[in-house]
Amino acid sequence: MSQADAAVYGLTADGLLAARIGDFGCFAVPGDGGLRLAIARCTGKPVAEWTASDALASEGIVGDETAFRAHVEDIAHHRRQLRGLARAHVATSRLTPWGTAQQETVYGEGVIFVSTASHGGFHLSEKRLAGLDPLLHVDGGWYEEDVEWAKVALAFPDLFTDRENAAADRTVRAWFPLIWQALGGRHDS
Question: Where is the DUF7007 domain positioned along the sequence (predicted)?
Answer without folding.
Answer: 94-186
